[in-house]
């Protein structure tokens, strides 16, 4: 039994994830070694050592969550405290939160900091997946099956947006939209939600536009349009990101040889780490990261489609969409496709909260894949081998609509 379970784990996912985080650790050291000394007045390997510790803790959490059956997360004994703690954590930021990067998004704990909104992303995925999985029998009853779970989502998005952290709020909203669209509800109900959302959000945005659209955010949008118009001012970050990406070429300048990280490119080890990768390792380094991230996202979606359990299916798709959406927003920001939002690159950027949350999510995804593979390779065969037994099937949330 135990050997069959071990054989059912998706080891290709583990290998790709391991390669990506080790590569990220190397690039954190390369990207931060100068700014650690010049800007933060610490040892050149300060951020590398801290990220290495984050990686060890995250690896242990990853193994633990990969071994715990994901269906336990569907229990009200876990869902109710999780919802309460996530809202309490976001609310407590307005009293005890630490301000950094124009947002009150962190709890300062000694030399470390914790960002609750990173973990709230996963809470939203688990909650919406669990609730919509339970409502499969009446998923198309709008007032009963569609609307109730959205109260939690609205509260979370509002709390995160007014920190203000518009980038993370947008990610949470897009993740939720992916889960809702994949839940099996009709396009008619999806259209209703879109219409209601527009009717509520547009007037609200006008009311709080002065708060959300600060000078910094307006500056980012203007810089996105033409960063070199004010390269010494609001376009500084994006202009230097362009120069880093453009100077890397095919092979790059060589590991550790970035020029833009020498005080020109801010947050070189967090939000702009891909710019340093492009400069030092060229298209090969960028391609490696994109292939690894692409494999994880597509593999997760494939696991979600194969999973016959609605909760597992939505959970896998939600986790995959989170990684894909966050990667697009980070890469789109440094390349000028979309305005900068200050979102880290999954598994690669420096950050303990992000890495820990992603490790929990990947452990859950790996556990789902194990159950899918075990059911396909062993359980179904055992059922068929018993006389008089027929294969039982369950509903699946992710489906193509008629």
UniProtKB/TrEMBL annotation:
Q: Catalysed reaction(s)?
A: [GlcNAc-(1->4)-Mur2Ac(oyl-L-Ala-gamma-D-Glu-L-Lys-D-Ala-D-Ala)](n)-di-trans,octa-cis-undecaprenyl diphosphate + beta-D-GlcNAc-(1->4)-Mur2Ac(oyl-L-Ala-gamma-D-Glu-L-Lys-D-Ala-D-Ala)-di-trans,octa-cis-undecaprenyl diphosphate = [GlcNAc-(1->4)-Mur2Ac(oyl-L-Ala-gamma-D-Glu-L-Lys-D-Ala-D-Ala)](n+1)-di-trans,octa-cis-undecaprenyl diphosphate + di-trans,octa-cis-undecaprenyl diphosphate + H(+)
What Enzyme Commission number does this protein have? 2.4.99.28
Q: Among its keywords, does the record have Glycosyltransferase?
A: yes
Q: How does it sit in the membrane?
A: Multi-pass membrane protein
Q: Where are the transmembrane segments?
A: 12-32, 52-70, 82-101, 113-133, 145-162, 168-187, 194-213, 281-302, 314-338, 350-372
InterPro entries (alphabetical)? Cell_cycle_FtsW-rel_CS, FtsW/RodA
Q: Which UniProt keywords apply?
A: Cell shape, Glycosyltransferase, Membrane, Peptidoglycan synthesis, Transferase, Transmembrane, Transmembrane helix
Q: Where is this region: Disordered?
A: 382-402
**Compartments, as annotated in UniProt:** Membrane
Keyword Transmembrane listed: yes
Polar residues biased stretches: 393-402
What is a single Pfam family found in this protein's UniProt entry? FTSW_RODA_SPOVE
Which coarse location class applies to the principal site listed for this UniProt protein? membrane
**What role is this protein assigned?**
Peptidoglycan polymerase that is essential for cell division.
Tell me its family.
Belongs to the SEDS family. FtsW subfamily.
**What is the name attached to this protein's record?**
Probable peptidoglycan glycosyltransferase FtsW
């Amino acid at each position: 039994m135990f050997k069959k379970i071990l054989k059912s784990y998706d080891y290709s996912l583990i290998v790709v994830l391991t390669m990506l985080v080790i590569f990220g650790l190397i690039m954190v050291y390369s990207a931060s070694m100068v700014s650690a000394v010049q800007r933060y007045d610490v040892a050149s390997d300060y951020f590398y050592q801290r990220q290495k510790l984050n990686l060890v803790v995250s690896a242990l959490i990853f193994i633990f969550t990969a071994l715990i059956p994901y269906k336990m997360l569907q229990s009200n004994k876990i869902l109710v405290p999780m919802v309460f703690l996530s809202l309490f954590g976001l609310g407590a930021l307005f009293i005890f939160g630490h301000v950094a990067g124009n947002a009150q998004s962190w709890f300062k704990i000694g030399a470390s900091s914790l960002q609750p909104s990173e973990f709230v992303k996963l809470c939203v995925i688990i909650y919406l997946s669990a609730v919509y999985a339970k409502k499969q029998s009446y998923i198309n009853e709008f007032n009963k099956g569609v609307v109730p779970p959205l109260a939690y989502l609205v509260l979370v998005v509002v709390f995160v947006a007014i920190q203000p952290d518009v980038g993370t709020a947008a990610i949470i909203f897009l993740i939720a939209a992916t889960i809702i669209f994949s839940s099996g509800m009709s396009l008619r109900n999806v259209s209703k939600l879109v219409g209601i959302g527009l009717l509520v959000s547009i007037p609200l945005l006008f009311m709080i536009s002065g708060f959300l659209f600060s000078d910094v955010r307006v500056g980012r949008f203007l810089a996105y349009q033409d960063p070199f118009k004010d390269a010494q001012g609001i376009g500084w970050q994006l202009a230097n990101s362009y120069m880093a990406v453009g100077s890397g070429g095919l092979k790059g300048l060589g590991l550790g040889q970035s020029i833009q990280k020498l005080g020109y490119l801010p947050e070189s080890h967090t939000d702009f780490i891909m710019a340093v990768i492009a400069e030092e390792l060229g298209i090969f380094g960028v391609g490696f990261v994109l292939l690894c991230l692409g494999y994880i996202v597509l593999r997760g979606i494939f696991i979600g489609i194969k999973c016959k359990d609605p909760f597992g299916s939505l959970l896998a798709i939600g986790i995959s969409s989170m990684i894909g959406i966050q990667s697009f927003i980070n890469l789109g920001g440094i390349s000028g496709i979309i305005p900068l939002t200050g979102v880290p690159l999954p598994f690669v950027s420096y950050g303990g909260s992000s890495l820990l949350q992603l490790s929990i999510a990947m452990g859950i995804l790996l556990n789902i894949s194990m159950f899918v593979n075990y059911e396909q390779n062993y359980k179904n065969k055992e059922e068929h081998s018993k006389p008089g037994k027929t294969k039982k099937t369950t509903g699946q949330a992710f489906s193509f609509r008629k």
